[in-house]
Model the fold of this input.
Amino acid sequence: MNQDKMHLVNKIFNNETIRTVWDKEQEKYFVSVVDLVGVLSESDRPRKYWSDLKSKLKQEGNEVSEKIGQLKLKSQDGKYRLTDVCDIEEMFRIIESIPSKNAEPIKQWLAKLGSERIDETFDPSLAAQRAIDLYRTKGYDEEWIAKRVKGVQDRKQLTDVWKDGGISEQKEYAILTNEIYKEWSGMSAKEYKSFKGLRKESLRDNMTDVEVALADLGEIATREIAKKKTPKGLNENIEVARRGGKIAGNARKDLEKEIGESVVTSDNALNYEFVDTKEIEMK
Done:
């Protein structure tokens, strides 16, 4: 199944053709602004409409105009040309800037999402239930969902221990997580996702039960070692993460020796493979 387009974007716009492209380096989807503006404004000259809107936003000091980049997207003639693009966050901000009846349903949807998030700050159980309901709609069974929720709790306990050890930045969490993954799977989280043919999707959501168990073991072992050794700073925590990951790696080797095959698989829960588009370049 070809997944070159981000189907969610096209679904939001009633299956109008909105060109989208995945940037591997930034791990983000980017959307053609001209296509977006054309659908919303119904203008016969979407490029001119966007040029005028961009100038207006810039004069107003709106940050949207500053965050527009350019990528090579496929044109109607089949050639790749530099085109104004934005990420998903900026896409919604552009939608808010366009007075159009076509934009109203999307604005109402965004307002509903905002209201739901506010409700969840007062009652966090609503967020948990929303996640469970979403997993159910995707076809995950109750046993898998229970394990996934438990895994989220275990992960939170690990990050709390890391915080006690002086780890505070997201990039540091990513570095430590990668060290755990590399020790037991032989791949960083990003490499693992690529191996499974994933993009924005959750890696854990697309693991087999054995892979999930090994990932959990690596993180739990890291947590318990860190609680005993109380490492401080990134370098000391990296060493502990490697030791925790190695424990899961040893468990993997023992299991594979018994069954005679690798337990790390390219299978995913999505039942498709992404087909990469032509190499994209940032201007």
